[in-house]
Amino acid sequence: MTSNRTSQHNSAMKEQPTSALTRAIDFLLAQQRADGNFEGQLSSSTFPSCAYAWIRLAQGQTPEKTLIDWFIKNQKEDGTWGLDTANQSNPDATLFVRLILEQVYEHAPAPQIQETLSCIPQYPLDLALVKLAYAAFNQFDWQKLTVSKNALPLLRLVKFLTRIPMFRALLKPPRNKLPPVDLFNTSLFQELFIAEQHTLVPVFIIIELNTTKRPEIINSLVAWLKARVLGDGSWFRVNYITALSVLALIEVRKKGSADSEVQTLIEKGIEWLRATQNPDGGCREAVNLNVWDTALSIIALTEVEASYSNSKAARWLVNHQNENGGWSFSGMRDSSLPSDADDTALATLALIRTKLTSADAKSAIQRGIEWLKQNQGKDGSWNTYQPGEGDVGCVSITTHAIEALLADGDNEMFVNRGIQWLRDAIHRDGYWNDLWLAKRTYGTACALVALIKAGFGDAPEIARGIRWLEQTQRTDGGWGEDMFGNPTDSTVEQTAWCSYALGLADSKNQAAEKGIQFLLENQRENGSWQESCVGIYWEIIGGYSDPIYAAVFPILALNQYIKKTS
Question: Could you tell me if 343 and 380 are in contact, meaning their C-beta atoms sit under 8 angstroms apart?
């Protein structure tokens, strides 16, 4: 009798994950767009919403009612706002919203706005980017925004020291001050991370126009900005960067510029920013992550079964490869958005998985592999963009590059260098930190997968990573943390990638089984799961949720569990 019950239980446990997997695949396939790509609707967040409202106010207009309603609806009970849909109170986000609503109230007084403002707690201004907004509305001294240009030699020393790992975490740039405008004309500026450059240039324009007003500096900064606008009218396809750029050009126009191109760029930029406004009224930080979403979807589907190769999605990836052989986070046929290692690694791996035999697909794969080889850092890691440009090695990106190189074959030297960097990057407590998804769970799960797939199953780091994941599992069987590594409620995405990694390491791992049970219990009738804020734009700006993530990662975990237990 006991034997029969055990057999029935095992059969039911196998049947339930199989049914869940089938429904999840059906849901994911239904998300594919007519062009062949997959693209999730990214969630709204506070900074891009405030930045768009700021533009409207700078033009003497009242922001849309839907945007104002979004601010009011997303105020927490304690009167604050969070950076993102995780909605954890954040003083900087709260101060930014307060400024915007105060300006709106001056233009169009309304009882609901007054009531919202009356609930906001007092915080001291801290973040320099928020101080910039306050200065723009004459509520902060322009002269106190930046450090003195006399500090440039000190900045050079700090930059040098941050190249040494032991100093990197200790010497972070100050949050409360911006660098001097004169930084633009130094080699230090060229060494900054590409997104930092795109953020600082419009900020420098705004500051210079309101302080020393040096024509030669302003003209150089404006020329830099004009040279980097993308074909769709955005800068870097990022809301906050585009909003700052538009605001800088609005200031240039207000100060009497006769450049006719400035007005055109303002109009195109605003049109692009409107496209980042979601149905809920708020704005998202990026217009889309369609390369990543498409590559992840192909990888998840082909891991289940080769017949899910989805040639239409694969052809979309081929058609959106950049001329240099890489891929950007958002597909643009004109190659104007720079290639990054994560999208290049995942797009290349996805194309390898599809087993397409066409000449253009084979060429795309080979060019992607060559891009990855050429852009491996001296230390063996892969950065987000290119080594030596203010970037740092990233755990998940390095693991994705390793997986692509393993799938391609005959890349042992590059793989081993990446593996060694990974082994050295483990934290003393047994986890790996990541840059772009939250955070220790993702870094640790990715590192374990890469080490195991590369044949380093006996590495002591694997046992340490497994132990850390097991110790951080929640009582409900899931995993959850915010972008800073602080514990949160369990999320589907984090539970899925932890369960996948643990199941890959040991098919009988009990923590993995509990994680699978969490996924089964939280799946919706239509095969989907509730998405959570696990993506990271930037710690100052916040994170995002993407419904594609809440499909592909559970599919990988469920499929892994079914294969290992069958």
Answer: no
Other beta carbons less than 10 A from residue 232's beta carbon: 18
The 3-state DSSP composition of the chain as helix, strand, coil percent (nearest 5) reads 60, 5, 35
HSE-up of residue 43 (Cα within 13 Å, Cβ side): 25
Alpha-carbon distance 208 to 221, whole Å?
10
Region for residue 89 given its phi and psi (left: phi exceeds 0; alpha: psi -120 to 50; beta: otherwise): beta
d(CA 79, CA 221) in angstroms, rounded, equals 39
Give tens-digit pLDDT for 324-376.
999 999 988 777 899 999 999 999 999 999 998 899 999 999 999 999 999 99
Q: b/e per residue, 444-476, with b = 16+ CB within 10 A?
A: bbbbbbbbebbebeebebbebbbebbeebbbeb
Q: Is 283 helix (H, G, I), strand (E, B) or coil?
A: strand
For tokens 């106010």, the residue is: 57
Q: What distance lies between CA 547 and its chain's CA centroid?
A: 14
- Are the C-beta atoms of 339 and 328 separated by less than 8 Å? yes
Length of the chain: 566
At residue 138, what is the residue type?
N
